[in-house]
Design brief:
Elements: E1 2-5, E2 18-21, H1 24-38, H2 49-56, H3 60-72, E3 76-79, E4 83-86, H4 91-115, H5 118-136, H6 140-156, H7 161-171, H8 175-180, H9 185-204, H10 207-219, H11 222-238
Antiparallel strand pairs: 1-2, 3-4
Helix pairs in contact: 1-3, 2-3, 4-6, 4-7, 4-10, 4-11, 5-6, 5-9, 9-10
């Protein structure tokens, strides 16, 4: 139901007033989307509409609409005689997605060089230091969160809302595997070195160098992410 709010109270719509809509299926879709992106549901996992509706405290109708929304976003797939499940990603599609994400992040970094201020860079440095502390402490969840925040922040600092929307749509589908996959010591050192280079090039406003390092940083994750999804996909097929 729409509610009309403004300084003069509820009533006829006047200049400066806003219309706020709060639909159950939108709220349910937001919660389910975050569960998928956080890894609570993994590729191939079946989504039980009835159980989720009970868990969310809503009827099955808005839950069904939420599932349709996420299917349209390619986070879920609805199979005949089976129902919805978290969409699987094959190697070819993963390579295509990473190539686009790499260019989007690199372009965001390039644009951010012209827009970023010292306070923005210091915030990124704080996140970077917190990411290192979490890794050293064995706090994988903390490491995952700080790593993601750094990439999201650079994309946001691009100032390009269309780029941000496309980026989050694609990145959200592989978010867990991308940031939380196990890394060898060599891969870890390389990733840290690339993050430090990203910060250095931002400080120097070196757009060309930042574009290159961010593009290569994303591309280098292909094998690690593919391994994570390969294991999950195999497990799903055996279930």
């Amino acid at each position: 139901m729409a509610t009309i709010e403004g300084k003069e109270g509820t009533g006829s719509l006047r200049t400066g007033q806003t219309i706020r809509r709060n639909y159950l299926h939108d709220t349910a879709a937001t919660r389910l989307r975050e569960m998928i992106r956080s890894g609570a549901f993994k590729p191939g996992d079946r989504i039980n509409e009835g159980d989720l509706a009970v868990s969310f405290g809503i009827s099955r109708t808005p839950m069904r609409e939420a599932i349709k929304m996420l299917a349209a976003e390619d986070l879920l797939e609805i199979l005949p005689n089976y129902g919805p499940r978290v969409r699987l990603i094959d190697r070819a599609e993963l390579v295509e997605m990473l190539e686009i994400i790499a260019i989007l992040e690199a372009t965001a970094g390039e644009r951010a060089c012209a827009l970023v201020n010292d306070a923005d860079i210091e915030e990124l440095q704080r996140l970077h230091d917190a990411m290192l502390d979490a890794w050293k402490a064995g706090d994988k969840a903390g490491y995952f969160d700080r790593n993601r925040q750094i990439h999201d922040a650079i994309v946001r600092l691009s100032g390009n809302t269309t780029l941000q929307r496309i980026y989050h749509s694609l990145s959200g589908r592989i978010q867990v595997a991308r940031y939380s996959s196990n890394k060898t010591d060599e891969q870890w050192k390389r990733a840290v070195g690339e993050h430090e280079a990203m910060l250095r090039f931002l400080r120097e406003r070196d757009a060309a160098s930042l574009f290159s390092v961010m593009r290569d940083h994303v591309r280098s994750q292909e094998n690690v992410i593919a391994l994570a999804y390969g294991v999950e996909a195999d497990a799903a097929r055996r279930a």
